[in-house]
Amino acid sequence: MHDEALRELARRSGIALDWRDQRGETRIVSPETLRAILAAMDVGPEDAVPGAAGSPEADRPLLTARAGRRVDLAAAGFAEGALELEDGDGAGSAVQSSGDGTGLSFVAPDRPGYYRLHQAGRTATLAVAPQRSPTITERLGGRGWALASQIYSLRSRHDGGIGNFGGVAALGAVAGERGADAIAVSPTHALFGAAPGHFSPYSPSTRLFANPLHADPVLVLGEAAVSAAIAAAGLDADMAALERAPTVHWEAATPARRALLAALHRRLLASGDGLAADFAAYRAAAPQALIDHATFEVLHEGLLREESGRWHWNGWPDGLREASSPAVAAFRSENAEAVDRQIFAQWLAERSQAAAQACCRDAGMRIGIIADLAIGVESAGSQCWSRPSDMLTGLGIGAPPDYYAAEGQNWGLTTFSPLGLARSGYAGFIAMLRASLAHAGGLRIDHVMGFARLWMVPEGASATEGAYLAMPSEDLFCLTALEASRHDAVVIGEDLGTLPHGYREKLQAEGVAGMRVLRFERDDHGHRHPSNWDSDAVAMTSTHDMIATAGWWRGADLAADDLAAQERRAWDRGLFWGSAEEAGLVTGPRPAPEEPEAAVDAAIAYVAETPSALAVIAVEDLLGLDVQPNVPGTTAEKPNWRHRLPGPAASLLDDAAAGRRIRLLQQRRGSRPRDVP
Questions:
Q1: Greatest CA span in the chain, whole angstroms?
Q2: In the chain, at which end, N or C, are there fewer CB atoms within 10 A of the end residue's CB?
Q3: What are phi and psi of 444, to 5 degrees?
Q4: SS3 of 289-337
Q5: CB of 556 within 8 A of CB of 599?
Q6: For residue range 91-109, what is the model confidence (pLDDT) as tens digits?
Q7: Pick the CATH number of 68-129 from 1.10.1740, 2.40.30, 3.30.1660, 2.60.40
Q8: CA dist list (Å): 110 to 26, 69, 129, 443
Q9: Global confidence as pTM
């Protein structure tokens, strides 16, 4: 294919042909990059002809529309005339399509939901979405506040050194009793069970299933059963030592937790009680995607044991690289018990998250758990192995060069192919939303800009050799609004950094709450007055990529010999204290760096005073800790994703400083009605 035809095919496939760098200069995307991205999308030279089987114009098995608005039928291959519209209950009605000069269409039903369209042997799903996702203000009937916690940092009985949903339940219960409406947790996606050192929650193997290390057997099976299993497996001393440790020792704690899960699996199967029956029903109804993920986990562990270099499935032996192959089916049959253990772990994770959400809601939270959706998955993981046509395997998500990263960024993750989604009827995306929202009252979407476009970098290329790939934004927002509505959940979008003009307004129209972080809501003269913050956003003191407020005030994140940074921080302290004073939140002289208590109180009061629908306070800020969960751009040199909170989750809020700050939140956010379920 000559370059002009290549560029035209790339353009029609949603690939931007150029981009503007940090100096404002236009950079042309190379033919090599275009070919690599098209190949990852499974678009070849034969698709240069519009309407070819794999082309962007191919017939689609799913259409999206807003309730009461017109549905464009052309992309699904329907003709002008009568169609049958079948609702979710199987009731059918006749609709008439017509051409209006802009295409073939009809008016969608007023009731959101999934419908089926039929005409002359052709069938497609119609996803009718509400105009936007449910908003936080609608859910709360006003303003509220929430805590944010890294799930692995929470301590609870028999957690074996890794926080789980038992800690979420315990913290959620005491926070709910004190007036909190939600608890936002770090991602709980499945990682790689055979690789304990691979523990970043934002680098999952799949976003369709859970990390079994966060399952809490006590919540599901009871403490007596778990204690007996620990004793029988000889894990008492190891687990107790791991639970006392100040940080998470993933490499030691993971094998211990997996040994406990194996022991619990054996005991449950032998028990024959009601829980065993519940697991048997869960296993019998397991979708193929779960069976594939369970099989991948067992395969991955076995192949890594044989040869440590077999990390990526594309380097596995012939016959094992495709989830649907006879060789994989034979392996699954030969290793049925190990595969069943993986399914049991998913059952336990799902049941324990459901129990944790119930605890939060029973304590009075009007939202409960806010789950976190990572921007992508590792291409070596189970999701790319089991459904490669859905994913952009061979490409990495990142960012072009800017003033903060002159060489650009490649985050080592990939995501759904926009054409793969269209061809599959968005099955993977819908399944991901449903998995995230099944037992949660809200969802935070990491890098929500990815609903519009993503910077994709071919494997082996530098981040400067990428290109922007347009995503099917309207479809993604429609499906998100529909699933959020079906689950009665709110949606938050991580919209920090530079966004295209009008994108925040787009999020607002979609009912997606943006994030406003105190340290970013400022200019050279001070912080934005609390009254001027966005009401349709969540107000935050910090994020997982920032040091907690006490550590920031102390300068604990700065090198002692970096005098320039120390001077900038002194200036920043003055700006914040002056802004808090102007807002009437503090009085008196600015505290010394080594005395951060009043500054932490002021930061919490600042975000609480805003009109933002939800004030989200990191537990580390509530406790006045110096912790930074993750230092971007670092790996082993920092204890990222390892910190543990100083006491049991159930008693964290008994701390005197935490109590004082909760009273601040209660006073400035207003009291929550106590009759809310």
A1: 78
A2: C
A3: -95, 125
A4: HHHHHHHHHHHHHHHHHHCCCCCCHHHCCCCCCCCCCHHHHHHHHHCHH
A5: no
A6: 989 888 887 655 688 899 9
A7: 2.60.40
A8: 45, 8, 9, 25
A9: 0.96
